[in-house]
Specification:
The chain is mainly α and 282 residues long. Helices cover 56% and strands 4% of the residues. Among the domains are: 14-86; 104-170, Arc Repressor Mutant, subunit A, CATH 1.10.10. The two termini are 38 Å apart.
């Protein structure tokens, strides 16, 4: 008797891919004390809110039954979280819109980095090139001294004898700072949103969402690629800021402002070797 093979669930592929995305997120939560039960409970209003939006996009009524069917939530959870879901997602959206948005200190830092003609050590006061002139060009709402104090708190600058020194070696995010977590959350959320937009075949232009992958490398070769990537990012930063700064100044009072993010990252890890993996040299 021949038993037909069991067809995989249509959601299995997506589930495997979602689990791969979730793996580093779960590791981060475990390291910071967030367990499964707490996270699962927090996800319920997210599923509910997104289900409501999806029903709205498809022109369907967001009844408890429809939300339950689409989201997989029990109807009692739908009833319990219907009101709080809106508040939760509004708060997350409001907070998330500012994650990765540069503070005055970060804007000063970015503009400084984009100026190839400026050295890493400039006087605090006086005409440009000076820290005071740079800070006032970014915002007149914050005193240059307050901006410098914030940069010193973040460990990216210091003042010595009336000179401000840029500390390039300190640009690795510090996990102790709330700003570092928010920058990560904002960057990863936007990256994933761009990919999901492209996968869903949504109308409108596709977002840039590309990467380069190489394997079979030695640790020394990976280090060479990392150095090249950092050099490329420094060039990209200067080019984008040279274009973005005048555009931001031009659009400062635009009635329908939009935000833009361009990111670049590197990652390396030992290759996972499976018995079923083919030798790529054959």
């Amino acid at each position: 008797m021949n038993i037909p093979p069991v067809s995989p669930s249509p959601t299995q592929g997506v589930m495997d891919e979602a689990l791969a995305i979730a793996e580093p997120l779960v590791l981060w939560m475990l390291r910071t004390g967030v367990g499964y039960a707490e996270f699962a409970q927090a996800l319920k209003p997210v599923f509910l809110a997104q289900a409501r939006l999806e029903l709205e996009r498809s022109g369907q009524r967001d009844s408890d039954s429809a939300i339950s069917l689409l989201s997989g939530l029990h109807r009692k959870d739908v009833r319990a979280f219907r009101e709080s879901a809106h508040q939760t997602m509004a708060r997350v959206k409001e907070d998330g819109s500012s994650w990765g948005k540069p503070s005055a200190a970060n804007q000063v830092l970015t503009r400084w980095l984009s100026r190839e003609d400026w050295s890493d050590r400039i006087p605090f006061s006086g005409d440009a090139p000076s820290f005071e002139a740079l800070a006032r060009a970014v915002s007149k709402d914050f005193h240059p001294r307050a901006v410098l104090q914030e940069m010193q708190r973040l460990g990216v600058a210091r003042e010595v004898d009336g000179q401000v020194q840029l500390l390039r070696e300190a640009f690795v995010p510090d996990a102790k700072h709330k700003e570092s977590r928010e920058l990560l959350a904002g960057s990863v959320a936007d990256h994933l949103a761009a990919g999901v937009h492209n996968l869903n075949g949504a109308s409108g232009p596709k977002f840039l969402e590309q990467s380069v992958f190489a394997d079979g490398l030695s640790a020394e070769s990976v280090q060479e690629l990392n150095l090249m990537a950092n050099a490329l990012w420094a060039h990209v930063l200067q080019e984008v800021m040279a274009k973005a700064v005048p555009l931001c100044d031009r659009d400062i009072d635009h009635p329908a402002p939009q935000r833009f993010r361009l990111g670049l990252f590197t990652f390396s890890a030992p290759e996972f070797k499976s018995e079923n993996k083919r030798d790529h040299t054959k």
